[in-house]
Amino acid sequence: MAPKKKFSKEQIIDAAFEIAKTDGMDSISIRKVAEKLGSSIAPIYVNFSEVDELKKEVMKKIIELSNQLLSEQNSGHPFRDIGVASLRFAREYSVLFRDLVMKQNEYMDSYDDDMGHGLVEMMKGDSNLAGFSQEELMTIFFKMRVFTVGLSVMVANGLLPKEFNEEKGVEFLNSTATDVITTARLNKGMD
Q: Reduced to 3 DSSP states, what percent helix, strand and coil does the chain have, rounded to the nearest 5?
């Protein structure tokens, strides 16, 4: 009998991520991951006692990916960068985006907790947002998130005109962010 192959935890997570990327989070199963690795299910169960544990690790990988996309923007305007990273994620990982954003699931609970507060902290570094309280920044973030998710849904589902490219998306994000911030400043009596 041939010896059983051994796989690192990271290799198993990567295989599960590849399944989620093409078929969605609900498609991850121990059997499918084993097939992807060309293995029996035994090596997967050595590292993960159940599929939900593996899915949580895949979600952590998605959060890392989101952070990476965000860090690649680095325009000096974190508020803008958040929107651009979201559009990129929707375009490059459309199945995952639709799976996580357009379906009710427990995965987004941890995403919101992990990412939401960190993103508002990043917004504090944006000179355009100086003078707003934490609560006001949360409201601004939520308004922009509603717009950005809507635009990202259109990107992920191919619902935008062909001429709508990333540059046009950035223009839309900038214009909408300016509108939201200007309105918030006016409402606060800052301008």
A: 75, 0, 25
Q: Phi-psi region for residue 189, left (φ > 0), alpha (ψ -120 to 50) or beta?
A: left
Question: What CATH number does residue 32 fall under?
Answer: 1.10.10.60
Predicted local distance difference test score (pLDDT) of residue 121: 85
SS3 63: helix
Number of residues that this document lists for the chain: 191
**Boundaries of domain holding 1:** 1-61
Number of domains forming the structure of the chain = 2
Tell me whether residue 71 is exposed, middle or buried, using C-beta atoms within 10 angstroms of its C-beta: 0 to 12, 13 to 18, 19 or more. Answer: exposed
Buried b (16+ CB within 10 A) or exposed e, 38-51: ebeeebbeebbeeb
**Looking at this protein, which amino acid is placed at residue 7?**
F
The confidence score (pLDDT) of residue 64 equals 92
Same domain for 184 and 115? yes
| Spatial contact of 44 and 30, defined as CB atoms under 8 Å apart | yes
Residue 45 DSSP label: H
d(CA 128, CA 87): 21
In-domain check, residue 118: yes
Mark whether 80 and 52 lie in a shared domain.
no
The ranges of the chain with pLDDT < 50 are 1-3
